[in-house]
Amino acid sequence: MRTYSGKYVDDNAIAANGFVASVKEESFLVDGGLLALALNDERKYYPDEVAATAVNLDFAQDEFVPAADAPKYVPSPTFAQKMLRADEIIQDRYDELKNYALRFKKLKTRISKKFDSINQGRLQFVKLSVAGKTLKLYLNMDIETTDPKFHCKDMRDKKTYVTVPVLLRIKSGRAMRYAKILIDQCAAQHGLKENPKFMEVDAIGMIEQFLYGGGEEEVAAENADMPETGAEE
User: Fold this and answer.
1) What is the model's pTM?
2) Fewer CB within 10 Å of terminal CB in the chain, N or C?
3) 3-state secondary structure 68-106
């Protein structure tokens, strides 16, 4: 049973109270066209009320059109951009730590959008990233082998860091000393040998090459063994 307005009468309510105590409405979709018809009727039969509470709405548009001055999506800065914006202390620590890690044989450094990765073939050795005033070092080693006083963080539960699960946050000179100890321990665990003929790289120069060197997605530099120039001593 329905009322004149198209509502269903609640038969249970009639049985309990003897009269129509409540109703339940038919569900229907209120779209832009229906709202436009309703507004036209209000303008026709109640022009004064509509004018007094005029709201400039265009119900004919089914899609929302954002305002011209609405904020647009701004992508997060890349590792290289953050490093170039970092203060001189962060840049110096990055340069020192990168060269310290690169001094082992047959390592390659590769800059990507989020990291500076130093690898030996398929072996991921260490990764460097930056967040604010903190330089982050990720190492391919077991956190159980690290000294508790270093306060390293276990990142094994995150897929991105599964191959470099030990994180050390570097904010001081003491943390830099810890970082070098961990790099040496990690190298020893993977059997890496120091290259006595290693030549230091310009870490910030490589960052600039990544950003301005022709739009390449990555920049790689290899620390290969230097050719022999004479007989061994």
Assistant:
1) 0.64
2) C
3) CCCCCCCCCCCHHHHHHHCCHHHHHHHHHHHHHHHCECC
